[in-house]
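Form 12-C: Joint structure prediction
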Amino acid sequence: MARDRAAWAWGVGLFVLALVAPFLFYPVFLMKALCLSLFACAFNLLVGYVGLLSFGHAAFFGSAAYITAYTVKAWGFPPELGILAGVAVAAAMGAVTGWLAIRRQGIYFAMITLAFAQMVAFFALQAPFTGGEDGIQGVPRGHLFGLIDLNPTLTMYYFVLAMFLIGFAIIVRAIDSPFGQVLKAIRENEPRAVSLGYRAEHYKLLAFILSAALAGMAGSVKALVFQFAALSDVDWTMSGQVVLMTLIGGLGTILGPVAGAFIIATMETYLGETGSWVTIIEGVIFVVCVLTFRRGIVGVVAPYLTGSRQRSGCHV
Amino acid sequence: MLSSLHLALPPAPLFFAQLLVGLINGAFYAMLSLGLAVIFGLLNIINFTHGAQYMLGAFGAWFLLTLFGIGYWPALIIAPLAVGLIGIAIERVFLRRIAGLDHLYGLLLTFGLALAIEGVFRQEYGSSGLPYSIPAELQGTVSLGFMFLPIYRAWVILASAAVCGATWFIIERTRLGATLRAATENPALVQAFGINVPRLVTLTYGGGAALAALAGVLAAPIYQVSPLMGSSIITVVFAVVVIGGMGSILGAIVSGFALGLIEGLTKVFYPEASSTIIFVIMALVLLVKPAGLFGRAG
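Section 2 - Result
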């Protein structure tokens, strides 16, 4: 009980911080970090709670970004419809990829998802509507529901925050639901879950689609924030980055991916001009995390903050 | 859509030229997926650093030439040895520490190493390629009647076939290979027979890395020497590995060459799909035989 109350207190505190944050920090940075946070949370749903490590989540993030950018710019979709279109495409792609990829586990699953993402990246480079190397630029933010002008930075920030909270709430709800319990059971011992009558394949596929759709939502919002979609959104380095964010923050923890996303976003913002140093440092962090810090920041810190020191498992 | 499939036979020179390109690519796919399979067999990790080690091989040849004036032929030996030693160091310093953990940690660790290595080279040399010329002995072309065959390309195909054959022979037909295969099946038992399994693991990883570097040296005169050359080929090689299955050495070789050829043929008949055909085949194989064409279930 004490633990629940502490968790609530932290939740409320963070929410208040998120409300005043644009007055304290650079709002564009915050929006980027929130998009990456949602992306990482969506990814974490799969790796942390089903035990499936996808190395190709950029495919969903990037495709949704392209779809939103295109529908909003070329077809004049309002932002909410543009995002919906992006999410729908990401979910459909997730259904196909997931259906094929869950036939294998572990490293094979990782390689298969990576290969599919690479295929999407090639497609994005060649397809007629994606703008090739340039991507789709100058995407208008538009008016939400035809009423709210999203062009002012502050309005956009609160819109992004709302989208993040919706996505985050869906993830938390899914994890706490009976559905989430079955996912964890499959992660811990799949044959046993199957023997209890759960159709593991269905649960895995559903989790994959949900994860892909929410990753797509992050990509769609990102396309509106920065008003472009580009090859870097579907690139495999993006897939690697979301793995890194989740790993730093703590695999299978609820807030870990958010912490990881803010760390990576900070690093990119401050080291962005130094060429390849970001990549080098990211590589080194990967190695250090795997060797010494596998539970991640939140995995290590959270038990102290919420007053319960019980070891929370951390699974890849 | 169908109209864009120009099914009419293309002119013969184009056909054979693309077939040759496919065979060359296939040679590299085969050598790289072979190294991955060997490492996977004993260490149970997917070596994401493989692409970086391939790139290091090519850069090794370039360094030897530009800094020390050492030519192609010595580089063919020195660069793989050097990268093999780096591989041994990587295994000793990093991989050994995570040996007992979930295999995915191996993937993450080698991915991090690949990022760091590639980043360092990109910082130093940018992402454009550096030229490395074909050795004098192998310049020029021979006429085969129906096409002109660049001698260097013929050499690459022969050399990689020889390398693949030799690796297959060592693993399947020698005493060392028998020990390796036994250690793959049951390391504890092999250790009990007095064989130093940890050293075997280290040497295997070094050998796999050296194999990647050898492919890199062979590739240097064909593709340019570039920091990005590894990561652009490794994802395709992963797909090749999924298609072939990790079970057999022969499977890695055969599927490498075959997929290179298919890619080349696609370039002739339907060029738009040439960069994605291997991934499409991967999807089909997953539908029909999830363990891969030559793989064992699991």
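Section 3 - Comments
Confidence is low (pLDDT under 50) at residues 1-6 of chain B. Chain B touches chain A at residues 45-46, 94, 97-98, 101-109, 111-120, 122-123, 231, 235-236, 238-239, 241-242, 272, 275-276, 279-280, 282-283, 286-287, 290 (CB under 8 Å).
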